[in-house]
Write a structure and sequence with these properties.
It is a single chain. By secondary structure, the chain is of the alpha/beta class. Helices cover about 25% and strands about 25% of the residues. It has a seven-stranded mixed beta sheet. It has a four-stranded antiparallel beta sheet with strand order 9-10-8-11. Strands 5-6-12 form a three-stranded antiparallel beta sheet, with helices on one face. It starts with a helix and ends with a strand. Bound molecules: ribulose-5-phosphate.
Amino acid sequence: MTQDELKALVGRAALQYVPPGGLVGVGTGSTVNHFIDALATLPRPVAGAVSSSEASTARLRRHGIPVLEPGAVERLPVYVDGADEIDPRGFMTKGGGAALTREKIVAELAERFVCIVDQSKQVPALGGYPVPVEVIEMAAPRLVRRFAALGGQARLRPGVRTDNGHPLLDVHGLVIEDPSAFEREVNQWPGVVTVGIFAQQRAHVCLVGTPEGVRTLVF
Ligand code: 5RP
């Protein structure tokens, strides 16, 4: 099976976590695109979705799925999103698609984070994939130096602005042994909007696409 077929498999499998006629939080990326397409096939449509990016909003609307603002919703039963890496405890690196800030905002509303990945995203420890960090532009040079002091090489992602209008750093060469401590530390550096380590908002369930089928991990 191709990587895209594995993504489609878990995109469809995530439907079992969506309450019929209820609300759902929707992430961003190529795996989530499959989930959105699968949502549109439900016999009993969802009442609406809270979206984490302009791209997902556009795709949801093309399918006729109502999109609600996060502020209009107090709680969501479930948030479904992909990841760039996921470790054995459900900690993730996210933001490869530049949507990390809104993804954290919507994930925080949800009772349950269902992560959908192909098997290539499973890692023993985070850091192999460069950690995305959304930043305020004027702080970027200082932040590059702060990551260097941790042993990381931070590079501006060329030509990319987030949906919030900010640039992104991608931090290479980190080994993140304690994702919670790393997220807490980097979050309080002035000029950091969001760090793409999801420890506070880690996955509760991960659906892993493999050639043998979907493997379900519960954390
Ligand atoms: C977007 C993300 C995505 O979930 C992550 O990049 C995985 O994307 P894909 O499903 O395309 O492999 O965090 O900001």
